[in-house]
Amino acid sequence: MSNQRESTMNPDLTRYHRQMLLPGFGERGQRKLLDSTALLLGCGALGCVAANMLARAGVGHLRIVDRDFIEMTNLQRQVLFDEQDVADGIPKAVAAKRKLARINSQVKVTAVVDDINYRNIEPLADGVDIFIDGLDNFETRYLVNDLAVKKGTPYMYGGAVGTVGMAYAIRPNADDSKATPCLRCLFEQAPPPGASATCDTAGVIGPVVAMIANFQVNEALKILTGNIGRVNPTLLNIDLWTNSFMQLKVAHARDDGDCPCCKRNQFDYLEGKAGSSSTSLCGRNAVQLVHRQQVDHIDFEAIAARLQEHGPVTTNEFMLRANINEDGKDYELTVFEDGRAIIKGTSDMSVARGVYSKYIGS
Ligand SMILES: [Zn+2]
Predict the structure, then answer these.
(1) CA 187 to centroid of ligand 1, rounded, Å
(2) At residue 42, does pLDDT exceed 70?
């Protein structure tokens, strides 16, 4: 490329020159990107990488929703944050907005500090062209999936824990031949509470999160610039510790199954009929979380084995109790056979939901 071409380019677009050279991108694709709004659900490890790349690429408006604050243990992989953010105790969404403003001042960033639930997701998604998954639990993913199917909004699913990650570009109900299965076509039920590892119990390496988030962004850029034919139709599944890279063919999953969401149009999570609900237990400095979905079996032994290093854990046939120190605060977590949990040490429902997601899982 010649310097002359760069200098005669519309100055607003100069910074995007290198990606505009890509096949099917061009000035047209860049302008589409600048006109786009992306909703980033969660701004932890996946969300940081995604927000960083989307802002640099020039997605016009980024709306970032996250309920959490930054802790020192986040810095190993949450690339938008630094030690000063931990010292300042600012919410992740706000810290991300500040950082992104220095990276690309052309991008409008809206920071929302809130728990994502069925009551607020529709207003949060208003006017949004694409959903980017930076979530840490399946329940909220199903909520996002419900709305994606209902509105026909593309949803870039991604998840990573330990050394394993998965990502998939979902285009539900697309009115072209490239429509895909939805998340519930692939995983009809969320794993029961405690069945899957979380980053806070199994650990996580930074590179797997960065790879998954970059895959999500890559597919988002294709979709937002109108390169639908280039979207990867497979479910990416990687394990960086065993050197496994798989691309699973899942295009038939919708036809093969009887998906309650995209085939039967049951939006159980969006309508608040499925998923957990939380109640603050008055006067007890405790919150109760109730799973509305039927929970068959909780493996207390497996959860206990994972939680042991965080503090004393006791189990009996009815419940598991763990004492956890999280960010200098002590919580007592009690999980019952039916998935119900009581988190003592807070009356804030979003804090309780956060503790539950981190240590028990979806
Ligand atoms: Zn489906």
Answers:
(1) 9
(2) yes
Give the 3-state secondary structure of residue 98: helix
Query: Structure tokens of 352?
Result: 């309780």
Phi, psi torsion values for 171, nearest 5 degrees: -125, 80
Q: Where in the chain is the domain with CATH 3.40.50.720?
A: 36-256
Distance from residue 62's CA to the centre of ligand 1 (Å)? 27
319 forms beta bridges with: 336
**pLDDT score recorded for residue 190:** 77
Torsion of CA 52, 57, 61, 65, to 10 degrees: -20
What fold characterizes domain 36-256?
Rossmann fold (3.40.50)
Locate CATH 3.30.310 in the chain. 276-359
Give the angle subtended at the CA of 47 by the CAs of 343 and 28, to the nearest 5°.
150
Q: Of these residues, 43, 185, 199, 262, which one is catalytic? A: 199
Architecture of domain 276-359: 2-Layer Sandwich (3.30)
| Closest to 241 (Cα-Cα) out of 218, 269, 211 | 211
Expressed in angstroms and rounded, the spacing between residue 215 Cα and the centre of ligand 1 is 21
Told to judge if 199 belongs to the known catalytic residues of this protein, a careful annotator would answer yes
CB 80 within 8 A of CB 51: yes
Give the global pTM: 0.83
Tokens of 316: 């009996």
CA–centroid distance, 32 to ligand 1, in Å, is 28
Residue with the larger pLDDT of the pair 158 and 360 = 158
Instruction: Let me know: does 163 contact 239? Beta carbons within 8 Å.
Output: yes
